Amino acid sequence: MTALVNTASTSSRAREHLAHALEHWGHLLPSQGPMTTFVHHNTLHGLQHQPFERAVAEGERLLGGRAYEPVERGRARYRARPRSTGS
User: Fold this and answer.
1) Low-confidence winner among 12-16, 40-44, 66-70, 72-76 (lowest mean pLDDT)
2) What residue segments make up the domains of the chain, in order of their start?
3) How far is CA 40 from CA 20, 76, 85, in A?
4) C-alpha torsion 53→56→61→63, nearest 10
5) CA nearest to 41, candidates 31, 49, 50, 51
6) At residue 5, does pLDDT exceed 60?
7) How confident is the model over 74-82, as a mean pLDDT?
8) Hey, what's the torsion of the CAs at 53, 59, 64, 65, to 10 degrees?
9) What is the arithmetic mean of pLDDT over 51-61?
10) DSSP state for residue 30 in the 8-state scheme
11) What pLDDT was estimated at residue 44?
12) Interior angle at CA 41, CA 36 and CA 44, nearest 5
């Protein structure tokens, strides 16, 4: 009988731990359920109220990334592309 009580107690603690972890980390999960067909999910939906250019700048600041490739890099890539000879 003691083994059953210990197992139940361990199971209860595990459930409490899981419930706490889900509550703690749940804010990182999307608010919708699993998508069966992917269409689109705007990960920056919190910035939708801002004008586009301001939202892009804020997204760069928050995430530490770049929204656009530097112009000179794009131009260099364009100039280096293979070209058709028209033969």
Assistant:
1) 40-44
2) 43-81
3) 31, 32, 40
4) 180
5) 31
6) no
7) 92
8) -60
9) 91
10) -
11) 77
12) 155
